[in-house]
Write a structure and sequence with these properties.
Elements (H helix, E strand, L loop, with lengths): L6 H16 L2 H16 L20 H19 L4 H17 L6 H17 L5 H19 L43 E2 L7 E3 L2 H7 L10 E2 L13 E6 L5 E4 H6 L3 E8 L5 H5 L14 E10 H8 L8 E6 L9 E5 H5 L6 E6 L2 E2 L9 E3 L12 E7 L6 H4 L11 H6 L16 E6 L5 E5 L4 E9 L6 E7 L7 E2 L1 E3 L8 H5 L6 E8 H5 L3 E8 L22 E9 L5 E6 L42 E5 L11
C-alpha cells in the first residue's frame, strides 16, 4: 500500500484545495482539468461518449456537466480525508464503475498528471514543491485504492456471479403487448401480482436473496398505480413552487449539474408480506410476498439543496408535496412529507436520477423520482413533476386513500363512515422492523445423507427510520427459546451514512448453522429481528384494512418426506408465495402453509405426502425417519 499523507501534508492539501474552490471555482477547475488531460492524452477523449463526437465539445453542456461532476467527486473525496474508513469504500466502488466504462489502469496515471497540472495552473505561485509532493502522495493512495483488484477480474460489477447490478430487461413481455405498457421491457421471472395491468411485481425471494446486496433494475420490485408514463430526459421539467421566494423549473441537465449524493438505500413496498394477512382475512390490497423490496445505489440531488435554492419560507413551511406524471382515475399520484424530514441532511432525502450508476428504468420512475431512506416506497413519488412547499399536508387523493395502517376493527365500510382515511395518526411513513427466512427456500428439500451434519439458515432483516438492526434470532421450538444469529452489514462497504450519521438505510443478512439432528425434531423455524430502539417483531400479525406493515415472526414449517430415490429428507414450506394463486375452485390459496381460518389443510396449496420436488440440497444428516410431525 502506498504511504498515507502525513498530517502536515493533509493540511497543505486542504489549504490548496480551498483556494481552488474559493478562486476559480469547481466548474472552471473541472473544465481546466479535462482540457489539460486531453491536451496531454488526446486518445483519452474517446472514453467520453457523451461529448467526444460533438463539434466544439468544450462548449457543450454534456462536457460542462461531466467536468463539474468529476471535480465535485474529487471535492467530496478530499472532504473525507479525515475519515478513511468512509473514503476507501467510496473510492473502491468508483473504481468498479470505471471498469464498466472502459477505464484501464494506466489511465489513472494520466489523471494524476492532469490533476497536478490543473492545481499548478489554478494556484500559480501558491503551488509549492511541498504542495505538489503532498498531492502526489495522496493521489498514489487514491489511484491504488481505485485500481484495487478491479482490473484483475472481469466480474467487477457483479454480485456473487449473479446478474450485473446494472442489468436491465431487454424484451417486451407477451403479457404487455396488448396493454399501454407495450413499450416497457420487463424481466420474465418477476411475479405479477395484479394480472396484466397495471404492472405490480416482485422477484422470487430466492432470486432476490441470492442476487446479493445490490439489486439490478431488472429484478427491482414495481408498484404502479396505472400505466407507465412515457417521459423524455430532454423535455422533462421539475417545478418547485409554493412557499418559496424563487419558483424554479429545472431540466434534467440542470438537476444533474447540481451537487449530487450517492448512497445505497433499501426501498420497501408498504405491503411487503401482505399475503399473509390476506390468508387470515382479505384486505383491500393485492398479494405481496416477502420480496417486495430492493436495494441499490441511488444518485441524486438533496431535496434540502433544491429547497434552499428556491428560498423556502422557513417561518411558514411545514410540508413538502410531490406529484408525479401518472394519469390515474383520481388524478395524478401525489403525497407529502414533513419539512423537517425534507431538510434533514442526515436523512439523505434526494431527487434521484441514477440507480446503480445508470439512468432510471421506466418502471422505476425515469427520469427522476423521490428517494426517502427509511420510509415506505409509497412516499417516493416516481416520474416526479412538481415539488410544492406547503403549510398543510398534501390534499392529493392518494395521500389520503393509500399507505395507512388502521386499527384491526376498521373495515372498508367503517373507514368511510367514520372518516378513518383522514386521521393523520394512521399514516404509514417510516418503515417498521422486519425479517424473513430466505434459506431454506420455499419447497426446498434437504436430503439426509451421510457426510455433512449441518444446515445454514439464512435470511434478511431491515429496519425503519435509519435505525440499525442490532440482532436477529431464530427459534426452533415455536418461539419458546431463541438463538442469536450472525449478522453482516454489507452497507458498511458501500455507504458513508452508518459511520457519519449512524443511519442504516439498507437490509442486512443473517445466518446460523444448525445440526440436522435438531431440524429433524423441529416442527418449524421462525425468525425475529431487533433494532437499536429495542423494537422487535411481534409473534402474530395484526390485520389491518390495507394489509400494510405486516411484520410478525416469519415461520417456515418443516415436513419429513420420502424422496423418489428411496431416501429421506426434510421439506421446508414458507407461509405464502407471492401472487394470486387459485385452487381448482378458483379460491385464493397461499401457496405455502397458511390457509384461511376455516379452510382444510389441503387448501394451503401444499401437497401433503406427495413426492418431494427434486430440486433439493444434498446436506449431511442422520439416515432414518423421524416422527417430527405426528398428524
Amino acid at each position: 500500500m502506498a504511504p498515507l499523507p502525513t498530517a502536515e501534508q493533509v493540511t497543505l492539501i486542504a489549504g490548496a484545495w480551498s483556494k481552488v474552490t474559493g478562486g476559480p471555482g469547481l466548474q472552471a477547475a473541472g473544465e481546466l482539468f479535462f482540457k489539460t488531460l486531453f491536451a496531454a492524452h488526446p486518445e483519452g477523449l474517446g472514453l467520453f461518449k457523451k461529448f467526444a463526437s460533438l463539434p466544439n465539445y468544450e462548449e457543450s453542456e454534456p462536457f460542462k456537466e461531466h467536468a463539474l461532476s468529476v471535480i465535485s467527486t474529487i471535492d467530496k473525496a478530499l472532504s473525507l480525508l479525515g475519515d478513511l474508513d468512509t473514503l476507501v469504500p467510496v473510492l473502491a466502488q468508483l473504481g468498479e464503475r470505471h471498469v464498466r466504462y472502459g477505464v484501464e489502469a494506466e489511465h489513472y496515471d494520466w489523471v494524476g498528471e492532469a490533476l497536478i497540472e490543473t492545481l499548478a495552473a489554478a494556484l500559480g505561485d501558491s503551488f509549492t514543491p511541498e504542495t505538489k509532493s503532498a498531492y502526489g502522495c495522496l493521489y498514489a493512495v487514491v489511484a491504488e485504492t481505485m485500481k484495487g483488484d478491479n482490473y484483475a477480474k472481469s466480474d467487477a460489477w457483479y454480485n456473487n456471479g449473479a446478474l450485473p447490478v446494472t442489468h436491465v430487461a431487454s424484451a417486451i413481455d407477451e403479457r404487455d403487448k396488448k396493454t399501454p405498457d407495450n413499450w416497457v421491457p420487463r424481466h420474465p421471472e418477476l411475479i405479477r401480482l395484479t394480472g396484466k395491468h397495471p404492472f405490480n411485481c416482485e422477484p422470487p425471494l430466492e432470486t432476490l436473496f441470492h442476487q446479493g446486496f445490490l439489486t439490478p433494475p431488472s429484478l427491482h420490485y414495481v408498484r404502479n398505480h396505472g400505466y407507465c408514463p412515457k417521459q423524455s430526459w430532454e423535455d422533462h421539467i421539475v417545478t418547485i413552487d409554493g412557499l418559496v421566494d424563487t419558483p424554479l423549473s429545472l431540466t434534467m441537465d440542470e438537476l444533474v449539474a447540481m451537487p449530487s449524493l450517492t448512497v445505497p438505500v433499501t426501498l420497501v413496498c408498504a405491503g411487503n408480506r401482505r399475503k399473509e394477512q390476506n390468508m387470515v382475512k382479505q384486505t383491500i390490497g393485492f398479494n405481496w410476498g416477502a420480496a417486495g423490496h430492493a436495494t441499490g445505489m441511488w444518485t441524486g440531488v438533496r431535496l434540502s439543496d433544491i429547497l434552499e435554492k428556491a428560498g423556502y419560507d422557513k417561518s411558514k413551511a411545514r410540508h413538502v408535496e410531490f406529484v408525479g406524471a401518472e394519469d390515474l382515475p383520481n388524478g395524478k399520484y401525489g403525497t407529502s412529507i414533513d419539512i423537517n424530514t425534507a431538510m434533514d441532511r442526515a436523512g439523505d432525502v434526494m431527487i434521484a436520477y441514477h440507480y446503480n450508476g445508470e439512468r432510471l428504468e421506466p418502471d422505476h420512475g425515469f427520469p427522476v423520482r423521490v428517494i426517502i431512506p427509511g420510509w415506505i416506497g409509497g412516499r417516493m413519488v416516481k416520474w416526479l413533476k412538481s415539488i410544492s412547499v406547503r403549510d398543510t399536508p398534501s390534499e392529493n387523493y392518494y395521500h389520503y386513500y393509500d399507505n395507512r395502517i388502521m386499527p384491526p376493527h376498521v373495515d372498508a365500510e367503517l373507514a368511510k363512515a367514520e372518516g378513518w382515511w383522514f386521521k393523520p395518526e394512521n399514516l404509514f411513513n417510516e418503515l417498521n422492523i422486519n425479517s424473513a427466512i430466505a434459506c431454506p427456500h420455499h419447497e426446498e428439500v434437504v436430503a439426509l445423507t451421510p457426510g455433512n451434519e449441518y444446515y445454514t439458515v439464512r435470511g434478511y432483516a431491515y429496519g425503519g427510520g435509519g435505525r440499525k438492526i442490532t440482532r436477529v434470532e431464530l427459534s426452533y421450538d415455536c418461539g419458546s427459546t431463541w438463538s442469536l444469529c450472525d449478522v453482516v452489514y454489507p452497507e458498511l462497504e458501500h455507504s458513508y451514512a452508518p459511520k457519519t450519521n449512524n443511519k442504516w438505510w439498507c437490509w442486512c443478512f443473517y445466518s446460523i448453522e444448525l445440526p440436522m439432528l435438531m431440524l429433524m425434531q423441529c416442527k418449524e423455524l421462525r425468525c425475529r429481528a431487533w433494532d437499536e430502539s429495542s423494537n422487535l417483531q411481534p409473534a402474530d400479525l395484526t390485520w389491518n384494512l390495507m394489509g400494510m406493515g405486516n411484520n410478525p415472526h416469519f415461520r417456515v414449517e418443516i415436513h419429513p418426506v420420502n424422496l423418489q430415490d428411496g431416501g429421506f429428507g426434510l421439506r421446508f414450506v414458507h407461509p405464502t408465495i407471492a401472487g394470486p394463486i387459485k385452487n381448482e375452485e378458483g379460491a385464493l390459496v397461499s401457496g405455502g402453509w397458511m390457509g384461511t381460518p376455516d379452510a382444510p389443510r389441503e387448501s394451503r396449496g401444499v401437497l401433503e405426502g406427495a413426492a418431494a420436488p427434486q430440486r433439493h440440497t444434498l446436506l449431511g444428516g442422520i439416515p432414518g425417519r423421524a416422527d417430527v410431525h405426528p398428524q
